[in-house]
Amino acid sequence: MWWGESLGMCVVLVGAALALTANVAWFPLALSLAVAAAAVLCTAAVPVIRYRHWRWDLHEEDLDLLHGAWRVVRTIVPVTRIQHVSVERSGWTDLFGLVRLHVHTAAGKTTIPGLERPQADDLRDRILAKLRTLDDL
Amino acid sequence: MISEVPRRLHRAAIVVEAVGLALRLVAGAVLVAIVRGGTPGTAAALALTGIAASVAMGYMSWSKTTYWLDDVALHYRSGIFTPDERVVPRARVQAVDTTTGPLQRIFGVVELRVQVPGAADDEEIVLSAVTRLRACGGRSGSRSLRRLTSGWPSGSGTCCLPH
Fold first, then answer.
1. Is the ipTM of this complex over 0.85?
2. For residue A25, what pLDDT is reported?
3. Judged by CB atoms within 8 Å, which residues 69-98 of A form the interface with B?
4. CA angle at residue A77 from A109 to B72, to 5 degrees?
5. Backbone φ and ψ of B64, nearest 5°
6. In B50-88, which positions are buried (b, 16+ CB within 10 angstroms) versus exposed (e)?
7. Contact A107 B146 (CB under 8 A)
8. Per the confidence metrics, is the pTM higher than 0.95?
9. CA distance B28 to B35
10. Alpha helix positions (H), chain A
11. First-to-last CA distance in chain A?
12. Could you tell me if residue A94 is left (phi over 0), alpha (psi between -120 and 50 degrees) or otherwise beta?
């Protein structure tokens, strides 16, 4: 699943490099081949790195997401701010038995990509259970 | 609880802002030079102008950006010529992101993004450089900007980076 988006970028980069060689006289062929090779390499490696650096956890009072190797992003969503939770499947994620979990707050949504189906259902139920108890307080 | 005087972002914000702007300007300038068939000299001149302009803009926007927290809200004022002030009640903060890019890492700061209801993604409050201590607090995380902003109780793990 993780290779999906980087494949698109790879095609764009290789295309751009080749186009530059074809249209701009002083742009050397070797350089554009190098760019194309680098793009292919990145396509293979980047998704693996992304995957390895994705962490999430549901704490007592907040949902905690941490991802990124180069740019590290940590998002904290207090459970009390969550409005609803949705689980998204698409043909592409179904191939791998995965789903995306979206957590909606009043300010928009936060997504955990690539959870296994039972895991996502479990997380959703836990969030909803927390909402119920916190609301009662 | 607390009431603060307006404070500025960490000086690293100048660099963060300038680099972001410069990348866009310089990429544009170089692209124009290539497509128009200009000499490398023109491209370099354009690029240098772009960098200078970005640094100037970065400095101005840093000097005009202030934020402060009081008991009920986070105040954020920004804008070079016509500063806007935005006030977000703590109880309305929906989520807080801290982002540490390569530039922020160099300066030991983080970018703090406050997600506010009713605002589009590009209208979120972004404090582009605050010290990690200020954003996340000390070991206990008490007095951290991210917690004070949303009035979360202490006790949950809220530091910015894994250790």
1. no
2. 63
3. 70-78, 81
4. 110
5. -100, 0
6. bbeebbebbbebbeebbbebeeebbbbebeeeeeeebeb
7. no
8. no
9. 11
10. 3-23, 29-52, 91-94, 117-136
11. 41
12. alpha
What is the model's pLDDT at position A8?
Answer: 64
- The DSSP result for B63-109, as a single string, is HH-EEEE-SSEEEEEE-SSS-EEEEEEGGG--EEEEEE-HHHHHHTE
Parallel, antiparallel or unpaired: strands A72-78 and B95-100: antiparallel
Q: Which residue of A has its CA nearest to B136?
A: A74
Query: Could you read off the pLDDT of B82-133 as tens digits, one per residue?
Result: 888 888 888 888 888 888 888 888 888 888 888 888 777 677 888 888 887 7
Strands A82-88 and A98-105: what pairing?
antiparallel
Cβ pair A55:B158 closer than 8 A: no
- CB pair distance less than 8 Å for A105 and B117: yes
Q: What is the DSSP letter of B153?
A: P
Three-state secondary-structure class, residue A78: strand
CA–CA distance from B61 to each of A62, B2, B72, B106, B121 (Å)? 33, 26, 26, 21, 20
Owner of token pair 């101005």: B60
Phi, psi of A84 (to 5 degrees): -155, 165
Judged by CB atoms closer than 8 Å, whether chains meet at B118 and A106 is answered as yes
- The distance of Cα B97 from the centroid of its chain, to the nearest Å, equals 12
Pick from B94, B146, B157: which is nearest to A105 by CB?
A: B94
Beta bridge partners of B109: B131
